[in-house]
């Protein structure tokens, strides 16, 4: 087994990212026990930075620490999914309204370019999902509220535990593109309330796809 070489600076953060990607890719499945000894050996590190990394992931909601039982990948219930979508809809619809009201032409052009990338990658679900997330996070950044930025980033990490089933559902990518087109048009028209409503509808439809 090859040993992964990690730089000494901020070692626990690098370990956290390694584990985060394993969780997102479902190498570590929801509910799975995290074997600290095995992972430390694979990464060629001691258990101290690994445990610090697990604390980071626990704070993000990706890992659940159980007394005297260790760390487990968090399992997401239907209620969890509904709660996450509800909060994301509130925060991101507010962001959409703010961007529609105040974005510059260049900022809107950047969103239009991301939407074009979405269209170009509609036949590759993994690429589509990645670009979709960049679009949403860029929109949030343009709204310029650092507090909601962090909350949304953490909520989106938890959403990934659901293996973004909504986008893999037959026909959901085409539906999502149509919703994005309506949202983008509202932004370009500088119509805050229409942008808010479009984002809320986008999340409402996404929830139906994620939790039939």
Shape: elongated
Helix content: over 70%
Relevant CATH superfamily of the largest domain: GntR ligand-binding domain-like
Q: Write out the strand line-up for the largest beta sheet, numbering strands in chain order.
A: 1-2
**What is the strand content?**
under 5%
Low-confidence stretches: none
Helix count from the secondary structure assignment = 10
CATH architecture label name of the largest domain? Up-down Bundle
Would you kindly provide a written description of the structure presented here, covering whatever features stand out?
With about 210 residues, the protein is mainly α. It folds into 2 domains: about 10-75, Winged helix-like DNA-binding domain superfamily/Winged helix DNA-binding domain (Arc Repressor Mutant, subunit A); about 80-210, Up-down Bundle (Four Helix Bundle (Hemerythrin (Met), subunit A)). About 70% of the residues lie in helices and about 5% in strands. It has helices at about 10-25, 35-45, 45-60, 80-100, 105-120, 125-145, 145-160, 165-170, 170-190, 190-210; strands at about 65, 70-75. The protein has a two-stranded antiparallel ribbon with strand order 1-2. A hairpin with a 3-residue loop joins strand 1 (about 65) and strand 2 (about 70-75). The longest helix is centred in the middle third of the chain and has 25 residues, at about 80-100. The protein is elongated, with a radius of gyration of 19 Å. The mean pLDDT is about 90. This is GntR family transcriptional regulator. It comes from Acidovorax cavernicola. InterPro entries: GntR_C, TF_FadR/GntR_C, Tscrpt_reg_HTH_GntR, WH-like_DNA-bd_sf, WH_DNA-bd_sf.
């Amino acid at each position: 087994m090859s040993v992964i070489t990690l730089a000494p600076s901020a070692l626990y953060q690098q370990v956290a990212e390694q584990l985060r990607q394993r969780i997102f890719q479902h190498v570590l499945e929801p509910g799975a026990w995290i074997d600290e000894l095995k992972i430390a050996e694979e990464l060629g590190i001691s258990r101290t930075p690994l445990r610090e990394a697990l604390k980071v992931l626990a704070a993000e909601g990706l890992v659940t620490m159980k007394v005297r039982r260790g760390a487990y990948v968090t399992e997401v219930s239907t209620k969890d999914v509904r709660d996450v979508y509800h909060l994301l809809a509130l925060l991101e619809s507010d962001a959409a309204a703010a961007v529609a009201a105040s974005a510059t032409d260049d900022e809107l052009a950047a969103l239009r370019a991301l939407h074009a990338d979405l269209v170009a990658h509609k036949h590759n679900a993994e690429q589509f999902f990645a670009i979709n997330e960049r679009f949403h996070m860029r929109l949030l950044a343009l709204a310029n509220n650092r507090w909601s930025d962090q909350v949304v980033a953490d909520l989106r990490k938890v959403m990934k535990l659901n293996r973004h089933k909504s986008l893999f559902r037959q026909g959901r990518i085409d539906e999502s593109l149509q919703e994005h087109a309506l949202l983008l048009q509202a932004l370009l028209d500088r119509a805050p309330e229409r942008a808010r409503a479009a984002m809320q509808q986008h999340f409402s439809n996404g929830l139906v796809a994620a939790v039939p």
